[in-house]
Amino acid sequence: AAITATMSGFQVKRLWDVGVAGIHRLLSNQHLIAEADILIVVAGMEGALPSVVAGLANCPVIAVPTSVGYGASFNGLAPLLTMLNSCAPGIGVVNIDNGFGAAILAGQIIRVGKRLRERYNNL
Prior knowledge:
The chain contains six helices and three strands; from the N terminus they run αααβαβαβα. It is mainly alpha-helical. It has one domain (2-121): 3-Layer(aba) Sandwich (Rossmann fold), CATH 3.40.50. It is globular. It starts with a helix and ends with a helix.
């Protein structure tokens, strides 16, 4: 996702190992979450991270379940189902390991938002 977004001309900030099991690592980066225009959140295991991030963010969150990890994630099916059933508003979910699709979707959302702002400012 990060490579695709960067190659598409977007500024990317990556956060590593900030899962819900170490929530302090996520919370110490809250300022980056607040500044973001859109967030792509990749998670395995139980897939809870996108819901937590969406609760902290004021922008769209694109959730990417990953097939990599330990435990009974069933090759990404467990995090996918968790993400699809999230009660946090503002989350879109792409398929397992589809970081490319998440980056393309993020770019489309940002471009449409920019176009709408330009139209509004020209009224």
